Amino acid sequence: MQTDRHALYAKAGRQFAPAVARLARAFERDAEKARDLEQDIHCEIWRSLERFDGRCSLKTWVFRVAHNVAAEHVAHALRQPAKIGIEEIDEFLVQNGSEAQAAEAHALDRVAELIRRLPALDAQLILLWLEGEAGQDIADITGLSPGAATTRLHRIRVQLARHFEIPPETGDER
Amino acid sequence: MSKPGLDGWAALAGDAHFAAPDACTARATRFERVIRRRNGIEYAAGVLVIALFGAGAIAAFAIGEWLLALGPLLVIAGAVVLMWNLHRRGSNLERHPEDSCVAHLRRQLAHQSAALRSVPVWYIGPLVPGVLVFFGTVTFKVAQQAGWSVALSGIAGPASGALGIFAAVIALNRWAASRLDRQIADLDSLIRHG
Q1: Which pLDDT score is estimated for A174?
Q2: Low-confidence ranges of chain B (pLDDT < 50)
Q3: What integer pLDDT is reported at residue A46 of this predicted model?
Q4: Cα distance from A47 to chain B (closest Cα, Å)?
Q5: If you average pLDDT over each of A52-56, A155-159, B5-9, which comes out highest?
Q6: Is residue A140 a part of any domain in this protein?
Q7: Final residue of a structural domain among A26, A52, A76
Q8: Contacts 24+ apart (CB under 8 A), B116-124
Q9: Structural domain of residue B162, as residue ranges?
Q10: Which of A91, A149, B43, B48 has a CA-to-CA distance to A8 between 20 and 30 Å?
């Protein structure tokens, strides 16, 4: 069983370490705290894999642990920026825009800043979408119904599309 | 998996790798550190209460006032029960971060809400008998010397203050629980309607 756990952890690391790092850096602006969060996620994944029973895919398991630990990290932060709703995304991005906003790195920074300002579940939806996840996978990770996840993500995408070049919605996402 | 949502996103942190499992053996995660720190503060406050009321009980014993020692002893017993409750509630904390985000968040909110709503029972309740006996015995002793009107007027302020603090703690916790309940309701609505 321990061998399975080590093998699963190694496999998860090979496949998802960059996604976990991106998630940690999106949820936490401070670089040192982001590294700390990243390590917390690794350790929570390692510990949780003792319970891995194959009832969901390894990807779903890893993403759930990562997102839940990151959401807890934000919830326990001493100073949290005021949260905004989906309908305020447009206004937020306008206020946080600048002439340099077309630059790709700056765009990614703005999205990360937006992620930190959204309630946990909406932040998780955006991150999963950024990672290229869609439809049933997002539903499995978040626990929302596929319809609910798609509807909410669509509302977010409409707002983001006013500020960023994003690919059109495909059948995969529904 | 479909195309990543934003150009450049997937290229970030490409060289990241997981920490070695050995590094996790001794590592307390932030969640564990937060719980540990919070419990540490509560335990320290409990020890302070025990020390202060213990000194009061010893002083009462020293002058042969057995009745006056009863209140502080009950407060100490209440503080011990309170700390035990803290320990028990911390140990019972189920943690399954591998659950879906909604299930995990909902369970945490519900756990916090239940803990806040039951504060009168597990947090305030154990201290009430000691406080009541303490005020009662002091009032009785003063009444024996100076009469009931003097005793009651003297105790009215401190007793109202203590009960006011208890009431404020309960009210604040109920208010916080109501906020959490609204978040749970929003979450349930989100699950149902998106």
Answers
A1: 47
A2: none
A3: 94
A4: 8
A5: A52-56
A6: yes
A7: A76
A8: B116/B173, B116/B174, B116/B176, B116/B177, B116/B180, B117/B173, B117/B174, B117/B177, B119/B169, B119/B170, B119/B173, B120/B170, B122/B82, B122/B85, B122/B89, B123/B82, B123/B85, B123/B169, B124/B166, B124/B169, B124/B170
A9: 27-193
A10: A149
